[in-house]
Design goal:
Elements (H helix, E strand, L loop, with lengths): L1 E6 L3 H10 L5 E7 L3 E3 L4 H5 L9 E3 H4 L6 E4 L2 E5 L4 E4 L2 E4 L2 E4 L3 E3 L5 H6 L6 H20 L3 H8 L1 E4 L3 H21 L10 E5 L10 H13 L3 E4 L3 E4 L3 E4 L4 E3 L2 E4 L3 E3 L16 E3 L11 E3 L4 E3 L13 H20 L13 E6 L2 E6 L2 E4 H13 L5 H17 L18
Parallel strand pairs: 1-2, 1-9, 2-5, 9-20, 11-12, 11-17, 12-13, 19-21
Antiparallel strand pairs: 3-4, 6-7, 7-8, 10-18, 14-15, 15-16, 22-23, 23-24
Length: about 425
């Protein structure tokens, strides 16, 4: 049996592993620095205390029970193609076939000041850190007697007008109106605002003009201050500096402005394309490699005639690539012909607020409650585990009915190891 090592337990890696789990020709090992798979599109709802982190995460070992898939917890440090092995922070692993499916990380575009003070949105840890921070700022704001301090502590600036930024802005605005005013009855929330800043002239740039217009209108009605055509240039933890010379006092800057593919030591720079993505052929094999593949957000494939500049970094691309690569690996062993990857675009969507969403499908554009219900249904399907799906449905139902989720806990774990 060929040893297939998949680094990364996201959508692409999981789909590939499951495809190969019943193969007589392959033994699969998934390597990930976390011991759980999670659902990134709903991270912002964890960050805003709308759902629990357990609703969107699932332990790998539980996920792989009663399968032939092995799990190895470790962070990839380097690939050694000639020796066909990978080095992790927990040891070495040999492979016959290596698949990189590590996704992306936040791109701060070399701005260390922003990197040091802003909050990214790429992991469960990021979401929980943001939640704790925002709640702490509100607690401090209620104790402050200075109007300028109350404004700074209450203001939230979101950099990036893509789906994550729009969804965060809408959720933050609704939390301020429906929840925080009840939690802090003696605090005047007129001091604080939610700002959404983007360098482009529109929100939701990859989506249709109708979706962009609807998102802008809904956010403005919610009281979000939308600033388009402006860049966030700097942030010192108390003041956000914009490209037009203006400044926004804010104790919270959330950075959703860009991502970059995770860099892998041992993969030559000649195999890297735009955004640090690894160049692959029509079968997702890395250029100039005989046994290393890349799938999902981490790869750049330009062989698809409908996406000559590469595929969008979406979950559906990752899922479809993982599925086809598994089929092709099996075909290699059975002597069948391989299939080139072509992306079946199923559309895109973004939720803006309660009962407000936009959906671009091949069959047309939808907005309002129909789009909102469609968004909920689509996002339930990929959640790992029946129990998680059920918990998520009930969490959403309760939160939407009451407008008052009960997860606003400030949790500050002590990282010090106590020696008895």
């Amino acid at each position: 049996m060929k040893q297939v090592v998949i680094v990364g337990g996201g959508f692409a890696g999981i789909k590939l592993a499951k495809k190969l789990s019943k193969s007589k020709h392959h033994q699969v090992t998934i390597v990930d620095q976390n011991n759980y798979h999670f659902f990134p599109p709903l991270l912002y709802q964890v960050a805003t205390a709308f759902i629990e982190q357990s609703n969107i995460s699932y332990p790998f070992r539980k996920l792989f029970q009663n399968t032939t898939i092995n799990f190895y917890m470790g962070k990839l440090l380097e690939v050694f193609p000639e020796e066909k092995k990978v080095l992790t922070d927990n040891g070495e692993i040999k492979y016959d076939i290596l698949v990189l499916a590590m996704g992306t990380e936040t791109n701060f575009f070399g701005n260390n000041e922003i990197k040091n003070h802003a909050f990214p949105m790429k992991s469960i840890d990021d979401a929980l850190s943001m939640r704790n921070h925002i709640l702490m700022q509100l607690e401090e704001a209620t104790r402050s007697s200075l109007p300028e301090d109350r404004t700074t502590l209450s203001n939230i600036v979101i950099a990036g007008g893509g789906p994550t930024g729009v969804e965060l802005a809408g959720m933050m605005a609704e939390m301020g109106s429906n929840v925080f005013k009840k939690d802090y009855p003696n605090f005047d929330f007129n001091y604080g605002k939610v700002y959404l800043v983007d360098a482009l002239s529109t929100l939701l740039a990859p989506m249709s003009n109708k979706s962009q217009s609807e998102a802008l209108q809904v956010l403005k009605k919610l009281g979000v201050e939308v600033l388009l055509g402006k860049l966030v240039h700097g942030y010192d933890g108390k003041q956000v500096s914009l490209s037009d010379g203006t400044h926004i006092p804010a104790a919270t800057l959330i950075w959703t402005s860009g991502v970059i593919a995770r860099k892998v030591k041992g993969i030559p720079d000649s195999a890297l394309g735009r955004g640090g993505r690894i160049l692959v052929d029509a079968f997702n094999k890395i250029i100039e490699s005989d046994s290393i593949y890349a799938i999902g957000d981490q790869c750049l494939q330009t062989s698809d005639t409908n996406f000559k500049n590469g595929h969008p970094q979406l979950a559906q691309v990752a899922i479809q690539q993982g599925d086809l690569l598994g089929e092709n690996f099996i075909s290699l062993e059975t002597g069948e012909s391989l299939k080139e990857f072509t992306y079946n675009d199923k559309g895109s969507m973004a939720i803006i607020a309660k009962f407000k969403a936009v959906v671009d499908l091949p069959g047309g554009f939808f907005k309002g409650i129909i789009a909102w219900l469609l968004w909920l249904f689509i996002h339930i399907i990929p959640i790992a585990g029946f129990r998680n799906k059920t918990k998520l449905v009930f969490s959403w139902l309760w939160s939407f009915i009451t407008n008052d989720p009960t997860l606003r806990l400030i949790i500050r774990p002590d990282k010090k190891i106590k020696n008895d």
